[in-house]
Structures are given as structure tokens and as C-alpha cells.
Design goal:
Structural class: alpha/beta
Oligomer: single chain
Helix content: 25-40%
Distance between the termini: 75 Å
Strand order of the largest sheet: 6-11-3-12-13-4-14
Largest sheet: 7 strands, mixed
Radius of gyration: 29 Å
């Protein structure tokens, strides 16, 4: 039967149009969603307007282009080009690995992925060759027929894949939950206020540099405050740092992190003192760090998250799609911090979701302003992003895409505080308010030296700097005193140190353990000197690691230290993103106990320097290995009798070589992959 409205070629162009748009606008975003469903706060249904809108736009756009190309005398050549471009993107996005580590805003080590780059080039050359063959040989007369069936075949595969994902995981709809909102964000009491600003990752050394370079302005902003420059935090990152500040209780991997948060929220000295002294509590932070029970905090409401700005959400979503489908050589132009989606959170609650975004906070200050609308006692806790890379703003408080430094952001943070203080003064409650400014951790060495400043109520003096040995271990005493209206000054801090020979710090190598039940293995340190000097933090030999964590392992599996998060569930301590400290411990419980000897194949990254390690399995030495820039791989054989009941504790002890610098250096041993298999090979 003759087609009435479209010719047979245009019919195939429409199928190609549908295949391209479906892959990029429907399949790719849904694939991304299900791959990260445990991390995303939005639902598949909430994504639908974005993916449907872009699909319709591109389908119409390509449809118009293909309509005119179909009228060309070289339509076969054009069709061949777009067909093989489609298959290039299809293979690039679905079969060439795209494991570039966690997209958290940190720089990607592009040199680590030479095989990905080579694969992109080889695939491109292959598609170009096929395009030429199908354009300039006798085969070209079959290109429309071949293209039609290939496109329909891929479409069918992708439709089946989506249906399978939906049946396996559902539509991932979220039930109602507790949401930390902006309710009463800038409301204060006319009677008594205790206001805490937590500026994330603000190192004391950065504050000192800012004060030295902008002395008069900073002294004016922080008039009446005392800065305690010798402050020791308790942990090196936010996940444990913020809960300790709020609860005063150490997390030592004795229970799942979430259980610790729920238990300590109501047991803490801070909460008990606030409750018994009749304080209203406004808690503005991320849900991860507190028990977001509406009965605890006045600004927690029941509701669902929703997407606040669909245009921005769509841009970020399809930037991520482009990152996945572009060749390796172009991916750097589409890098995205997946945490950027958090900035688009909204909720179906009466008040907006609270975000730790510095600029959003200052915009609220400018638009709404601090206002006295409460009476009685009020405790307000503001958690802001503080001085956190990538640095995106400076003193002007405008994010304009330019390059900034930590000092620039520090200056910007001071301007935010200045605006807030000025509005407190205008409202007539600044002098009577107690204000604490602190960071959950620093940003240098072990991140052990954060800022800590206090202005007591009705305290009047010039900006002061104290060298008293402050520790976050004293926060319970400090909160209790401030809540009761007592003064916390240098003498108070010095009394907290009486009878204490050292200050305690628990260090761990951060491994992006946001979703882990437990934290990475912790190493206890004692500080008997200056908190700013990491050499004054001496390991005590005590370690705390997640003995109750599930370490089930399937023999034959490969661990990818650079790109996978799950691998760190086997690391008790000493390895982060492949970098091995002077000592490291991993543990495995084999799911299959029918094994011979165990072979461990290790691959090193391009950052591995020269050195060697002794290796122990269940405290018995099984061998050693050396590594260098030239060493790509090494293998160890573990005798069967060393591994009892499928339990293997694998320990590395460095015997020579450069030590990995705990924060930013890639020196020392750097593992890329590890494969553990059963083998009949004998140990050397």
C-alpha cells in the first residue's frame, strides 16, 4: 500500500530521529536516575517534565533538519553520517566505561584514563570508516534499510531495559518525610538569643591570613569577639564533625552511623540543656547530621521534596547525560558536581527547604532581613558551606564563574556575618545576643585546626585573639554555660584544660563514605602541643573500625579503588582513593568457602612512587611487593591454610619508600585495582 503523506526515506529519517531523541532524552536520564537512586532526593515522576520537554524539543528540531536533508541529492551520505554518529554515542555512553570516580567537584585525574581516551579514538575512527564505506560504495543503496532495522533494534533494547528497571526498583517514589525548612530563618527573640554559625571547612590559618591582610575591616566586623586560634576539632570531615558539635559524643564505629545520630540527638548535653531551660530550637543544617524529628526542632516540617527550578535542573541533568555520552576528550567540558542537584531542592511544605548555600543565605538576608518576632529564649544553629572548594565567590558575594581562592571566600563569609550583625544591631538585640562562630573542621594537614570565636551577651571589647588551648571536647561544658547565660572566656577555657595532659582527635582517611553504614577506620591521636602543627598530633596506637560491617566478598571480583565507592566497605583503615598509608588493613568474608590458595592481583596507578610493602594475611606474613612508576602490576599468593573459614584480613605495612601525605599528595603507593581469586598456584 502506497504511503500517502511521507516517502519511504523520510519514514526512516523519522525512525532515526526517534532513536536519537529517545536514547539521549529518555533512556539516558532514566539510566542515570536508577544508577544513583539511593542518592537522589527527586523522583522519576519529578524528572518527567524535564526529559519530556527536551525530548519534544529535540524531536521537532531534528525532524525539521532531517526533512530538508531528505530533499538533498546526497541524502544517503547525510543519513549515513547521522546513523554512525548515533551509534558512536550509543556505544560511547553504554559500553565504554565512564568510571571517573565520584563527581563531587574535585579535579578528575584525566591522565589515569588513557584507555578510555584510546577507546574513544578507536571507536571514532571505526565509525568514520564505516560511514565512508556506506556512503561511497555500492552498499549505500541499502543504508536506509539497514539503518531502519538497527535503530528499531536499539530502541527495543532500551525500552525493555527501562521496563525491567521499573519492575525491579519501582518508580522510586518517596513517601512523606521530615524536612528541615527555612521557617523562621531570620527571626530572633527580643529577650535572649544564642546564635551559632558553623562555617564549613574554615581553617584557622585562613582566618589569620584574612585578619592580617584586611586588619581594620576584620577587627571592626568581629568587635567584641574572642578568637581561639589554638582550637582542635575532633574529626577531619563534616560527617562526624557536625554531629559531635551538636551532641558532644564520639562516634567510634561501634554502631551504624544513622543509629548514632538518632540516639544522641535527644541524649546530648546540648539538647537536654536547651529543653530544660525552655529554649526554642531552630536547627538549620543538612538532614544527614541530625535526627530531623519535628518534635525536636521548630523548623522541621512533614512533606516531600520537589524540584524548585526546572530550567536549572534540566541543564544539570543533561550536562550529566552529555558527560556520559561524549568522548573522553570532551568530557572535561561537561564535568558536574552531582551535589549541585541539592541546590535545587524545594518541598511541598509551607516553608522552603533549608540549604547550606552561602549565597542563598545572604540573599535571604538582603530580601527579608533579620526581624524580632519572638519572645523568650531562642537557640539558632546555622550551618553554611563556609570556605569550601571549589571557591566560587569573594567579598562581593556574587557567583560570577570567575576563579577565587580560600581567602576570597573567607572575605565573603565575613561580609555575610557583617550583614547579619548589622541587622541584629538595627533590631536592637546584638549586644544582648550570645554568638558563636566555628567550623566543623579545618582544611590543612589533618583538618584539625578550625576557627572558633565567641561573643558573650553584653560583652564589649576590641577583637581579641587568645592562645588558650581550646578543644571541641569542651563543647558540652561551653554549651551548658552559654545556655545558662554564663560567660565563656579565656579563663573558662583554661579551666576546661585542667587535669588534661592532651587533647583528643580521631583521624580517618575520607573515602566519600556518605552512604556507608559505618565510617572509615579511625586512628586516635593526642595533641600535646599547638593544634595548628600536625606534627604535634601523635598516634596513640588505638584504632576504631567497623567490625560489624558486612564484608561479604565474591571470589573472582575486582575492586576498583579509583572509581567505586563500595570498595571502601572492605577497607578498615589506611587506603583512600587507592592511596595506601604506611599501614593499611582490609577485611574480606568470602561467600564461597570452596577455594584453594588465594591469588591477589594488584594494579598500580600512574601516581605510584618507589617503595615496598610487607603483606600479612590474618597476622601471618605472606610476602612483600615493590612498586614504582614503572611497575604496573604485582601478584601475591596466599596459602589456603592462612585463610580460616573464608575470613581474610589483609594488612599492608610499608617497609620503604615515600609516605602518602594524608591530604593532597599522591606520593607513595597508589592502587588502582585489586582482583582476588581462588587458584591452584603455589606460593613462592
Amino acid at each position: 500500500m502506497k504511503r500517502l503523506f511521507i516517502d519511504r526515506y523520510l519514514y526512516v529519517w523519522i525512525i532515526l530521529d526517534l532513536a536519537i531523541c529517545f536514547m539521549l532524552c529518555i533512556f539516558a536520564p532514566i539510566d542515570i536516575f536508577y544508577a544513583n537512586r539511593d542518592e537522589y532526593w527527586f523522583t522519576l515522576g519529578q524528572m518527567f517534565p524535564s526529559i519530556a520537554g527536551v525530548f519534544l524539543y529535540l524531536f521537532i528540531l531534528f525532524g525539521g533538519i532531517f526533512y530538508f536533508l531528505n530533499k538533498s541529492k546526497i541524502k544517503n551520505e547525510f543519513f549515513s553520517f547521522f546513523l554512525f554518529l548515533y551509534f558512536y554515542l550509543y556505544i560511547q555512553g553504554n559500553f565504554i566505561p565512564r568510571k571517573y570516580g565520584v563527581l563531587d567537584g574535585s579535579d578528575i585525574l584525566w591522565g589515569e584514563y588513557k584507555t578510555y581516551a584510546d577507546a574513544s579514538i578507536i571507536l571514532g575512527i571505526l565509525c568514520i570508516v564505516l560511514c565512508i564505506i556506506f556512503s561511497f560504495t555500492k552498499i549505500k543503496k541499502y543504508i536506509f534499510k539497514i539503518g531502519k532495522y538497527l535503530c528499531l533494534f536499539v530502541l527495543l533494547i532500551q525500552v525493555i531495559t527501562i521496563i525491567t528497571l521499573v519492575f525491579q526498583h519501582g518508580l522510586s517514589g518517596k513517601t512523606k518525610g521530615n524536612i528541615i525548612t527555612q521557617k523562621d530563618l531570620l527571626s530572633v527573640s527580643k529577650d535572649q538569643n544564642v546564635i551559632v554559625f558553623l562555617l564549613d571547612s574554615y581553617d584557622e590559618s585562613v582566618f589569620e591570613e584574612l585578619v592580617n591582610s584586611d586588619n581594620e575591616n576584620q577587627k571592626e566586623i568581629f568587635e567584641n569577639f574572642t578568637s581561639y586560634k589554638d582550637t582542635l576539632s575532633t574529626y577531619p570531615t563534616t560527617k562526624c564533625g557536625v554531629p559531635y558539635i551538636l551532641t558532644g559524643e564520639w562516634y567510634q564505629n561501634a554502631e551504624p552511623y544513622e543509629d548514632y545520630i538518632k540516639r544522641t540527638s535527644t541524649e546530648s548535653v546540648l539538647y537536654k540543656q536547651l529543653s530544660s531551660n525552655n529554649y526554642e530550637i531552630n536547627m538549620y543544617t543538612e538532614p544527614l547530621y541530625v535526627n530531623e524529628d519535628p518534635s525536636l526542632y521548630e523548623n522541621v516540617e512533614v512533606g516531600n521534596y520537589k524540584i524548585g527550578k526546572y530550567r536549572d535542573f534540566t541543564n544539570k541533568l543533561f550536562t550529566l547525560v552529555a558527560f556520559n555520552y561524549m568522548p573522553h576528550q570532551l568530557k572535561k567540558f561537561f564535568c558536574l558536581d552531582t551535589g549541585a542537584f541539592d541546590g535545587l531542592k524545594a518541598a511541598d511544605t509551607e516553608d522552603d527547604v533549608y540549604l547550606t548555600d552561602n549565597i542563598k543565605f545572604v540573599n535571604n538576608l538582603d530580601n527579608e532581613g533579620v526581624h524580632v518576632s519572638k519572645t523568650g529564649k531562642l537557640f539558632k544553629f546555622y550551618h553554611l558551606d563556609g570556605i569550601h572548594g571549589p571557591y566560587t565567590f569573594g567579598k562581593s558575594l556574587i557567583e560570577d564563574g570567575q576563579t577565587y581562592s580560600a581567602i576570597d571566600e573567607a572575605s565573603g563569609n565575613s561580609e555575610i556575618l557583617k550583614k547579619y550583625f548589622e541587622q541584629l544591631k538595627k533590631a536592637g538585640v546584638y549586644d544582648s545576643s550570645t554568638i558563636v562562630i566555628l567550623a566543623d573542621h579545618g582544611n590543612h594537614d589533618y583538618c584539625q585546626n578550625p576557627i572558633f570565636l565567641i561573643k558573650n551577651a553584653n560583652e564589649i571589647h576590641e577583637f581579641q585573639v587568645s592562645d588558650a588551648k581550646m578543644s571541641y571536647e569542651y563543647l558540652n561544658s561551653i554549651w551548658e554555660a552559654l545556655i545558662k547565660g554564663k560567660t565563656v572566656d579565656e579563663d573558662f577555657i583554661k579551666k576546661c584544660t585542667e587535669g588534661k595532659e592532651y587533647r583528643r582527635f580521631l583521624y580517618y582517611n575520607w573515602d566519600d563514605a556518605w552512604n556507608r553504614e559505618y565510617m572509615p577506620g579511625m586512628e586516635e591521636m593526642e595533641c600535646k602541643g599547638d593544634a595548628s602543627d600536625s606534627s604535634d598530633l601523635i598516634p596513640t596506637g588505638k584504632t576504631y573500625y567497623a567490625e560489624r560491617e558486612n564484608h561479604s566478598f565474591n571470589l573472582g571480583s575486582t575492586l576498583d579503588f579509583i572509581n567505586e565507592r563500595d570498595v571502601y566497605g572492605y577497607v578498615l583503615y589506611g587506603i583512600t582513593y587507592g592511596r595506601v598509608k604506611t599501614e593499611a588493613l582490609m577485611t574480606f568474608d568470602f561467600t564461597d568457602n570452596t577455594y584453594d590458595n588465594i591469588r591477589i592481583d594488584m594494579t598500580f596507578t600512574e601516581q605510584a612512587q618507589k617503595g615496598s610493602y610487607d603483606v600479612y594475611v590474618n597476622d601471618m606474613k605472606v610476602g612483600d611487593f615493590s612498586y614504582s612508576l614503572e611497575t604496573k602490576k604485582t601478584t601475591l599468593i596466599v596459602p589456603h591454610e592462612y585463610v580460616k573459614d573464608g575470613h581474610m584480613e589483609l594488612k599492608f605495612v610499608q617497609s620503604s619508600g615515600a609516605r602518602y601525605n594524608d591530604q593532597y599528595d599522591y606520593s607513595g603507593c597508589s592502587l588502582s585495582k585489586m582482583k582476588i581469586v581462588s587458584t591452584s598456584e603455589n606460593a613462592n
